[in-house]
Amino acid sequence: MSESPSSPTSSAAARRGIVRFVPPARWVAVLLAGAVVLALLAAYVDLPLAIYIHKTISADVDGAFNRIGQLGERGENYALCALLVYGLSLYATRRGWSEPWAGAYDRLARGGLLMVAVLALGGIVTGVLKHLVARARPSMFFEHGYYGLGAMFGGKHYTSFPSSHTLTAFGVGLTLAVVFPRCRWPVLAVSTLVAVSRLANLDHYASDVTAAALIALVVVVFLSPYFLDPARQWPKRLPWQWFKRAPR
Q1: Membrane spanning segments where (predicted)?
Q2: Pick from 180, 79, 74: nearest CA to 120
Q3: Which helix or strand (DSSP H or E) is residue 191 part of?
Q4: Mean pLDDT to the nearest integer, 23-27
């Protein structure tokens, strides 16, 4: 995916404008801090919180959160919608349609493609961890008294860590927050509600949803400069033209 040359200063400025959550230089610190937080949650919060929720959440509240949690289902549907936005934006650009705002089609094309990549990479990481970590779901504790890890690839009852629904919700939410910063608080609030719903429905522990949100954050931070940096022209081309050298 060759790109037109740009100065280091302009590239750095573009990166700062795109990635606002965690600067790349602090990734190691963020990952270490995340690991510490996850360990503390697993040791002191996960089980007590799950027991408290099991005792206090009513059927009506559980049902309401179940409906909210459905927003995190089937990440492939979000990816397909994002891919459609990408294709329509390229088509509109080539047809010369008037833009609803300056640079709209460029932003939509880049953002749509970024969301597809975030959901794909984040989904792969989450899926692999689910089967390798093989953490027992809360239902295993409340039905069989078992809390901990099982054998790798032990089946659906041992796929608690991390939460796929939360990964989808934060993958979509964080991508939208980066592409459209003015909308960041509403979309991140919805993402957080989806994560809370996984706790309220006793489908996951607190560290499961926290890990998924962290994975989504890291993936968005890592991929955003490659898709949103104006110096990179490949996202504005059709897929079979991505590796075509830009004219000098």
Answers
A1: 25-45, 77-93, 113-133, 166-189, 209-228
A2: 79
A3: helix 184-200
A4: 67
pLDDT score at 5? 45
Written as one letter, the residue type at 235 is P
| Average pLDDT over every residue of 12-19 | 44
The topology (CATH level 3) of 23-57+66-241 is Vanadium-containing Chloroperoxidase; domain 1 (1.20.144)
**If you ran DSSP here, which 8-state letter would residue 21 be given?**
S
Tell me the mean pLDDT in the region 142-169. Answer: 95
Cα atoms in the 13 Å half-sphere on the side-chain side of 108: 19
Q: How many CB atoms lie under 10 A from the CB of residue 100?
A: 9
Domain boundaries defined on the chain: 23-57+66-241
Write the burial class of residue 1 (CB in 10 Å: 0-12 exposed, 13-18 middle, 19+ buried). middle
d(CA 155, CA 140): 12
- What average pLDDT does the segment 192-208 reach? 97
Q: Residue 34 has which token pair?
A: 């995340």
Q: Which amino acid is at 82?
A: A
